[in-house]
Amino acid sequence: MGEIINKVKSLDVITIDVKNFYVLGKREQFNLSDYLEDGILIEKNFRKKLMDFNWSIYKGVYVNVFIEKNQIIPSWAFLLLSHYLSKYSKDHVIGDARSLEEKLYNISLNNLDISNYKDKKVIIKGCSDIPYIEYVYSELTRRLSKHVLSLMYGEPCSRVPIFKKRLK
Predict the structure, then answer these.
(1) DSSP-assigned letters across all residues of 1-39
(2) Is 11 within 8 Å of 41 (Cβ atoms)?
C-alpha cells in the first residue's frame, strides 16, 4: 500500500469564513411608536420624551429604530432621534434588525483587502450560524467576482463551484 496523501491539505485555495464578518456586540431595538400619541407625533411632547429618556441604556450598544405600524413620521424626528442615539450607541439605523446587521456587515466587509484574493482560488465557507448569512454570501461574491480566479462554496473537501474565470 502506498503513502496516504491528503489532497485537501495540498489544495491551493484560500478559505473565507463568513462568521469573521459578524460584528460582536449587544443589539437593542428602539420602538418609535412608543413615543407617539394615538399614532400621532406631537412635536412638543415628542421632544420632551426624548429629552427625558435615559439614553445611557444604549451606551456601547448597536440599535435599530423601528415603527410598529405604517405611520407617517416627519423626517426631522429621525434626525433628532439619531442625535440622541449618536451620543451613546456604538451605531444605529432607522430600520429593522436586518438593516442593522447589513450595515454592520458592510462596515466589516469594507475592511476586507480584496487585493489579497487577486487571481486566487477562493472558497466561501458554508454552514455558519450568523444572522442574515445570505447577505454576506451575496456581498462577498459581488466584491470578489471581479478579482478571484475561481470562487467556490462550502469546505475544501466538499466544495461547490460558483464560477471559474477562463484564462486567456
Answers:
(1) ------TTTT--EEEE-GGGGPPPS-EEEEEGGGGSBTT
(2) no
Using DSSP's 3-state secondary structure scheme, residue 86 falls into: helix
| Strand-by-strand arrangement of the 27-31 sheet | 27-31, 62-66, 91-94
Tens digits of per-residue pLDDT, 17-75?
Answer: 999 999 999 999 999 999 999 889 999 999 999 999 999 999 999 999 999 877 889 99
Distance between CA 147 and CA 22 in Å, rounded? 23
The pLDDT value recorded for residue 158 is: 83
Residues near 100 by beta carbon (within 8 Å), at least 6 away in sequence: 27, 62, 63, 64, 91, 92, 93
Grid coordinates given for 155: 469546505
Q: What angle do CA 59, 101, 35 make, to 5 degrees?
A: 55
Q: How far is 109 from 139, CA to CA, in rounded Å?
A: 8
The predicted-structure confidence for 104-144, as pLDDT tens digits, reads as follows 999 999 999 999 999 999 999 988 889 999 999 999 999 99
